[in-house]
Write a structure and sequence with these properties.
13 helices, six-stranded mixed β-sheet, 17 strands, binds flavin-adenine dinucleotide, FAD/NAD(P)-binding domain, alpha+beta, Elongation Factor Tu (Ef-tu), domain 3
């Protein structure tokens, strides 16, 4: 292939970029894949391999009635290179799909190198071309120069460098014998109040703060705290503005009661009084079945979060769909910036995929890579986009990142809470998960055109 024959450029040979390149090349595009390693590396990668798994070697559950297992099955039915490579390089891990990471990378690299429509270049992408289709999939540790270029294109306030993620719980696990709906001073949009409030007595508050102050924390690595040069810290992307609750509590035991847990304007309807402190929960998805703990970004160990946040009155039985965490993570504020086809709205020939596009977890990254590759091919061939059904996990992720509330956007991984509700949901959680999976796979099977299925 000569320089002029390429019809698509993919930035980043990680999970999303490799899947995207493969999908696009299978649809006849001539793909140039740029990967900056090994010449220039990130603080988490240790090899020059494509599709390097930077941490765990597990791609999550292989069971279809688990969120990441369902996503895997969907991707398999859409001929995913990375899921197939994972199966070929799997190691025993119970119900999870874990891999030999070197073998996994080799499988992916070999398939891409041998593909007649793909050429791999080991060089850093430094800017986003004004013309010519591109998929940007440079991940959570995107190089500083490209981060600056993305920031220039999306706006300083729309590129984040740290995840300060607050935990998310399911609505049906909140105890409404204690918790109540209200907005501060009744100023919310809905009559009942936009927030769910968990009221603390003075004693409850100080035992909670004591537990927070003495809880075990996860250590932050250098790359997790270091911000690259050449980019500016914008909205919400620096520590002082989003301190972990345990740090706030450690500075002063009263800090939370005067900060994220201040009770003013939040009278408890049962006592008719203002509680000593209040933890607020804010709706996290359109369906309204997930709520995040407002201002509760944290870096505690997951087991500590489960133990301590269940001390919150009303959250004794909380089911966590995501725990809080803090780490270096470059991602765009996707809602409003990209559409459901993963195109940058103001520059439709630029597609975003992987962690940079606001999804999380190995499977979510592979999935958006697959969607970006398929969509870029449709765009370049002038064909209609394939509508990933909204009942599928991939479809729901695409809807979430393009339609969530941009004011509070945080990356999302596969979970059943983002799927449209079932018509007649069974009471048992396990049964519900099964029905979600059946509905998703039926919907995918009935809408997939033949050319998107793996050849036997
Ligand atoms: C330290 C860390 C640990 C994680 N652990 C897990 C985990 O255990 N489980 C899990 O599910 N998720 C984990 N994640 C989250 C996420 O799933 C992974 O980071 C995943 O690899 C992201 O996929 P991606 O394709 O978006 O980016 P990556 O897989 O990181 O791929 C991006 C690629 O782009 C390259 N690149 C960057 N800048 C440029 C440039 N300018 N030009 C060319 N190439 C460039 C990088 O070298 C890299 O190869 C972790 C993230 C981090 C940061």
């Amino acid at each position: 292939m000569t320089e002029n024959s390429f019809t698509l450029t993919v930035f980043g040979g990680g999970l999303a970029g490799c899947e995207a390149a493969w999908q696009a090349a299978n649809r006849g595009l001539k793909v140039r894949l740029l990967e900056m390693r090994p010449g220039k590396t990130t603080a988490a990668h240790t090899t020059g391999n494509l599709a390097e798994l930077v941490c765990s070697n597990s791609l999550g559950s292989a069971l279809q009635d688990r969120a990441s297992g369902l996503l895997k099955e969907e991707l398999k039915r859409m001929n995913s290179l990375l899921v197939s490579a994972a199966e070929k390089s799997s190691v025993p891990a119970g119900n999870a799909l874990a891999v030999d990471r070197m073998m996994f990378s080799q499988e992916v690299e070999r398939a891409l190198e041998q593909h007649a429509n793909i050429r791999i270049f080991r060089q850093e992408a430094q800017s986003i071309p004004e013309t010519g289709p591109v998929i940007v999939a440079t991940g959570p540790l995107t190089s500083s120069r490209l981060s600056a270029a993305i920031q220039a294109l999306t706006g300083e306030e729309n590129l984040f460098f740290f995840d300060a993620i607050a935990p998310i719980v399911t609505l049906d696990s909140i105890n409404f014998e204690i918790a109540y709906k209200a907005s501060r001073y009744g100023r919310g949009e809905s009559e009942a109040g936009d927030y769910i409030n968990c009221p603390f007595t003075k004693e409850e508050y100080f035992s909670f703060v004591d537990a927070l102050r003495s809880a075990e924390r996860k250590e932050l690595q250098q790359f997790e705290t270091g911000i690259d040069q050449g980019v500016t810290a914008g909205k919400g992307n620096f520590f002082e503005g989003c301190l972990p609750v345990e740090i706030l509590a450690g500075r002063d035991p009263n800090a939370l009661a005067f900060g994220p847990m201040r009770p003013v304007g939040l009278i408890d309807p049962r006592s008719g009084k203002r509680p000593f402190a209040v933890l607020q929960l804010r709706q996290d998805n359109l369906a309204g079945n997930l709520y995040n703990l407002v201002g509760f970004q944290t870096n505690l160990l997951y087991k500590e979060q489960e133990r301590i946040f269940r001390m919150i009155p009303g959250l004794e039985n909380a089911q966590f769909v995501r725990f809080g965490q803090m780490h270096r993570n470059t991602y765009i504020s996707a809602p409003g910036l990209i559409n459901r086809n993963l195109q940058l709205i103001r520059r439709p020939q630029a597609f975003f995929a992987g962690q940079l596009s606001g999804v999380e977890g190995y499977m979510g990254n592979i999935a958006t890579g697959l969607a970006a590759g398929i969509n870029a091919a449709a765009f370049i061939h002038g064909k209609p986009f394939f509508e990933f059904p909204s009942e599928t996990m991939l479809g729901a992720l695409l809807t979430y990142i393009s339609h969530a509330d941009p004011r509070h956007f945080q990356p999302m991984k596969a979970n059943f809470g983002i799927l449209p509700p079932l018509e007649n949901p069974p009471r048992s959680k396990q049964e519900r998960a099964k029905q979600y999976a059946i509905r998703s796979l039926n919907s995918l099977d009935s809408s997939l055109p033949d050319e998107m299925r793996p050849s036997l």
